Amino acid sequence: MVQTALASDRPATLLQMSGIDKSFPGVHALKNIDMTLEEGEVLALVGENGAGKSTLIKVLAGAHLPDSGDILIKGRDLQIHSPTSARRAGVSVIYQEFNLVPELTVRENIFLGREKVRRCFIDANEEYRQSVKLFKELGIDVDPDSRCSELTVAQQQSVEIAKALAVDAKIIVMDEPTAALTTQEVGRLFAIIRDLRSQQIGIIYISHRLEEIFEVADRVMVLRDGEHMGTQDIKDVTLDRLIEMMVGRPLESEFPKRTVELGTERLRVEKLNRGDIVCDVSFHVRAGEVVGFAGLVGSGRTETMRIIFGADEADSGFIAIDGVETSIHNPRDAIRNRVCLLTEDRKGQGLVLIRSVCENFGLPNLGRFRRGPFLNQAKERREFSKYVENLRIRISGHDQLVLNLSGGNQQKVVLAKWLACNANIIIFDEPTRGIDVGAKYEIYLMMNKLVSDGKAIVVISSELPEILGMSDRIIVMHQGRITGEITDVANATQEDIMCMAIA
Question: Which H or E element spans position 482?
Fold first, then answer.
């Protein structure tokens, strides 16, 4: 009798994926993967970019058909052959890039394709009533009649969660759900996750922010190069062990140390202004120096760097490069003056997704690869090959579409094209957003190599440990103005930065 009681108290297995195998031309993406998810459980799924996480989720979501393997939901063997069949089985995926129609209202997005109909007409009142009920359950105040284009990122995410609940999802996959959220919004999301767990909904949580895993997950599953490296209770694994499972080797420290002698001043900005988003900004960066920019979303960090790169025009102020006042009216001027910008939105602004990796590499370097009116493709490919090797860019070939690369490898392609320009001033805007810990470490090593070669680096990051770990000095902005500067970074804390950021 005691054994029976104990067995009945254990959560039921909600999802079981067994022997999942999937190959693409030249890539064995998943190798006999097993995964289980219990009712009311948060299972963290982690691994480097290209480890197979997205492919596994797309198999569960019906976007990819597995070459072999079985999927059981609540003990039933299901043939998930399309996203529609996955939704019918109770599976809902909230991708990092939301699937919302911006010009439709919240209500219309929630019931898109499943409209409530009364006498051949859409029953907008019923959709509104059910939307209000869903948001009330989530503890969120969102107007169902507002357009999705008018919502914040956190509100859009709430709409995606409401969509999942509207179809009675039993399994919700969250792919990098906190990538663009503030600290307060992350706390609210975690509260929603705890509420979903209490409703016996199973959650698969994908994130490169490993500290979140320990806060929100019950178990963690690690993939590496398409193989299942193990699944453990979160209480039984340390951060160092988790990183080692992901990358296949221990990392000596999260932020590699460097000792570089500072050189002459590379960049000076004086009294830069643009409307009320950049106000009287002045700073400098020396050769061999990494200057970090911190601040809340909307503080003016990105807007300042866009002016320096020539993407936006300043109302007033001046920029000096290597001691010479310089006019930068557009990115072409910036590139000519050996200034480059790795944009915050690498997909929207840093890459042409439907072109090849080699073509993206060559875009800002066409002048060097030209032979008369023609492009010397052989030279372009030879030079790109050097960066593929040095930066360890994982590609199937020079003609692979950049769209099909992992986030970390996309970032490396962006870095490669700017390194080929031989830029002396390199601006990194959120350089490791959406990138796994192994790729982050490689980018940090590359930054160290750049400053040791006499480059000047500016880094914008919303991750305060990254700013503290990689910067020689930290400049903090709030509402378009510089509100503080930290020179003794070794003894600074996240609290020090936040006090300046909300000044």
Answer: strand 481-486
